[in-house]
Amino acid sequence: MFNRDNWSEIIAALSANPFRTLITAFGVFWGIFILIILLSASQGLQNGIKRQMGGLSTNTMFMWANSTSKPYQGLPQGRSFNYKNGDVEAIKERIDGLLYVSPRNQLGGFGGNNNVVRGTKTGAYDVYGDYPEFILQQPMDIVKGRFVNYGDIHSNRKVAVIGEGVIRELYLSEEEVLGSYIKVQGVNFMVVGVYKSISNLGGNAEEAQKQIFVPFTTFQQAFNYGDIVGWMAITAKEDRPITDLKQGIFDLLKQRHSINPDDERAIGYFDLYQEFKKINGLFSILTAVSYFVGIFILVSGIIGIVNIMLIIVKERTQEIGIRRALGATPWTIIKQILSESVVLSLISGMAGIIFASLVLSLINWGLEQAPNANEIPIVNPSVNLGVVAVALIILVFAGLLAGLIPAITAVKVKPIDALRVE
Amino acid sequence: MIEIRDLHKSYQMGKNSLHVLKGIDFTVKEGEFVSIMGSSGSGKSTLLNIIGILDEADSGTYTLDNVPIKNLNETIASRYRNKFLGFVFQSFNLINYKSALDNVALPLYYQGMGRKERMERSMYYLDKVGLANWAKHLPSEMSGGQKQRVAIARALAADPKVLLADEPTGALDTKTSYEVMELIQQINDEGKTVLIVTHESDIAEMTKRIVFLKDGQIESDKSVNQVRASSYV
Lengths: 422, 233
Description:
By secondary structure, chain A is α+β, with helices and mostly antiparallel strands. Chain A has helices at 4-14, 18-52, 85-94, 134-137, 150-154, 164-170, 205-208, 216-222, 242-256, 272-315, 317-325, 330-369, 385-412, 415-420; strands at 60-65, 83-84, 98-107, 116-118, 121-123, 126-130, 140-145, 159-163, 181-184, 187-197, 211-215, 228-229, 231-236, 267-271. In chain A, strand 4 (116-118) and strand 5 (121-123) form a beta hairpin.
């Protein structure tokens, strides 16, 4: 269909009035440009917010023990209970679709007394007993040494991973941190790692740098917790929302701790997934609005093409009459007009895509160069290639449609009437 | 070549119907050179348009080269125009953004002829009308006579059975008119059937047969002694 002759026909017709062709093309160009910029902006914002969450596993629930609010099996209401190591094993065994179940214990916190001593210096820090998986649920940068590992867990090693904030307060600047000892509530721990929190969320970035992580088993033994588990961080597999799985976990725990199945308050939890879904909902709305606005701008560009094609065909009525007198069949004429509009919309659309990608790469470059890049909540604004492809397909169809109306109009005119137009 | 029997045609002008052709019987043999004359409104252009399959008669029969022309759909009509007929118009009707050569090549393009052959043949016909040097020029760069000669080359390019010319000299001065007529006479000399519509008697006398139309009917139809256009130049 597109041999050299067809191309030269199309190019000749389009370049017969270059200014008008340019103005028309600009409508489509602008439409697809705005569409891509809008979509990328919303994608960039999404990326930015996600980065600020520091790669937190969002399919996660934190769960702790409250006191019961209903009597059950002869036990009174208001009874407090604790999770035990056995609960962790039971959850891992009985509940399907979970990725990590990390029991945690905590000392200090919320402006508590000084609980950590090193030489003559003291400080009040949150001390956590954790399993190695925890770093996968709430990522942090290990800047020196290592995080807690299973060797530590199995042999109850008294080792600690401390934050940079802790180092600032307990160490002199030139002192070697790894291998040194700190005393937590009278128990000596060897520092084996230094972490740096990467989450900017929640506004307590300062606090987040002042934590101490020790092996969970060591924590229980050293601070006399027996087999008590303070709380758990439970992450589900990617395709199984924790929100759907949590009721099964609650039922299991209620059964193990003789809690009334209807007791809604005994188990305290924070469902990160549910919260994140709200943010996601916001993003969906943002994306939808971008599509909405972009597509409507695109549509107005296409209407511009329909308009201009109608004018072009009207102006070329006589030419079409001549062509038909010389033996052009109606289909030849329709084909010609359709190809003109498709080529026009396709080229201007592609120009829009190219221009948009140039602008995007410029913005990306600017973002990377920015000195406070980490604080800008826009990261890698980009658009899905599939979306671009769909936009192009829409453009082709729109071009076809834009050409179809004037083409049919053109062919309906009898050749003799077309020739009479001066 | 052309056989017309009892042809009627009327136009709808608002509520009034205008009866333009009121029963035309008309035959043209191969190789004839016919001019159709008449005052404006006599129906001569309408007749030519019907012969050119640009318009359709209301009733009567029309046979072109033994092919009945009746109730054709537009696609077949286009093919017949391309194959049987070459058109020359008063206002030249060249496509103004195409070069002379491309204009001549257009009917061949619609025949689906390959590019190289098409260009060669177009060049041959351009040369025939004496415009080989103007092949790359646009119509806007040419004089009226040159444009009409390009139009004639275009009409001949597809080697039609009949050349139809509607006031071919209507927009030209006398000298150029005679040059164009000389060219058309040469074409007829080579055996091509030619039909022209004109209201200038000196042009009509350069043909071999004059048909007078009056109020939609043939008033007279007589053979004449052809005046060679070259005798004026």
